Amino acid sequence: MSLQPLKTELEKKKQAVNLLVAVLREVNEEKTASDVWKKLESLYLTKSLTNKIYLKERLFGFKMDPSKNLGQNLDEFKKMTIELANVGTYEKLSDKNDVIILLNSLPESFKNVKAAIQVWQNFS
């Protein structure tokens, strides 16, 4: 019996705790929840053009991972749309664009579903 998977898992947890401690150190002096939030935003929410381009490329290039279930894939997609919306008021995509991106993200095995949705959309 190998202990390697257990060691790997413990190492991941150790890294997560170290990250949490580092973040807590950054906001330790803040007095209110609002101040903590503003500090975290200033540290970790990059609103630069480069970041916006990166987020859009990631979202528009999104492909569902066949090794994950539908819920996990949709969670990943939703996280990306939220990240994009958080970098600017005008960065949120319309629901129609979300649908187009999701349809294009479906694996090849869903081609009939995609075609049916596209035909149905043309008649509505």
Portion of residues within helices: over 70%
Alpha plus pi helix count: 6
What is the residue-averaged pLDDT?
A: 85
The topology string of helices and strands comes to: HHHHHH
Taken from the alpha-carbon principal axes, the silhouette is: flat
CA distance, first residue to last residue = 59 Å
Q: Quickly count the domains.
A: 2
Return residue spans where pLDDT drops below 50 for at least 5 consecutive residues. Answer: none
**Number of E strands:** 0
Q: In terms of structural class, how would the helical and strand content be classed?
A: mainly alpha
Radius of gyration: 20 Å
Which strand-content bin applies to the residues?
under 5%
Main beta-sheet strand count, sense and barrel state: none
